[in-house]
Specification:
Distance between the termini: 51 Å
Mean pLDDT: 83
CATH topology of the largest domain: Trna Endonuclease, Chain: A, domain 1
Number of helices: 5
Order of helices and strands: HHEEEHEHEH
Number of domains: 2
Low-confidence stretches: 31-35
Structural class: alpha/beta
Helix content: 40-55%
Strand order of the largest sheet: 1-2-3-4-5
Strand content: 15-25%
CATH class of the largest domain: Alpha Beta
Number of strands: 5
Shape: elongated
Length: 151
């Protein structure tokens, strides 16, 4: 190869590397920003935050339940004729099976069609398995971020 072609290949490789580094940097900043957002919220604040997101996503009759005696359900809502019972968890670690069980019981208690768990975190493998068996929707931190970005 001649020197001119080698130089072009080096420049193209460097440009690709810069694009890749830029994408990784942007993702790291976005992740840091969203975790900072949730870090300062208390549990009840997070419930109202989630309720606001749901309203922006077209849910209606969105109601945050009272703190105690709610049977594990924090938000009741409806969208396109489907009723939801939603458990909200603002945690510092992945969400486990207990939240799935609460959403399952609360869905039946409130006579709702769909049960869901909404969290700033992610779910443990046993929680994902339980959710599949009990037919509970899992909305993790990444999903919440995507909901936020759409508005």
């Amino acid at each position: 190869m001649d020197i001119n072609l080698n130089g072009k290949m080096i420049l193209a490789g460097a440009a690709l590397l810069l694009v890749f580094v830029g994408i990784v940097w942007k993702l790291l900043i976005r992740k840091r920003r969203s975790s900072d957002l949730f870090e300062d919220m208390e549990g009840h604040e997070f419930e109202y935050f989630c309720a606001d997101i749901l309203k922006q996503k077209g849910f209606v009759d969105v109601e945050v339940t009272r703190g105690s005696g709610d049977y594990g359900i924090d938000i009741l809502a409806e969208k396109e004729g489907v009723t939801y019972a939603i458990q909200c968890k603002r945690y510092a670690a992945p969400v486990g099976v207990k939240a799935i069980q609460e959403a399952y019981a609360g869905r039946d208690y409130y006579d709702r069609m769909v049960g869901a768990v909404m969290t700033n975190q992610y779910f443990t493998a046993p929680a994902v398995e339980a959710a599949k068996k009990l037919k509970i929707l899992l909305w993790d931190g990444g999903y919440i971020e995507s909901m936020m970005e759409e508005h």
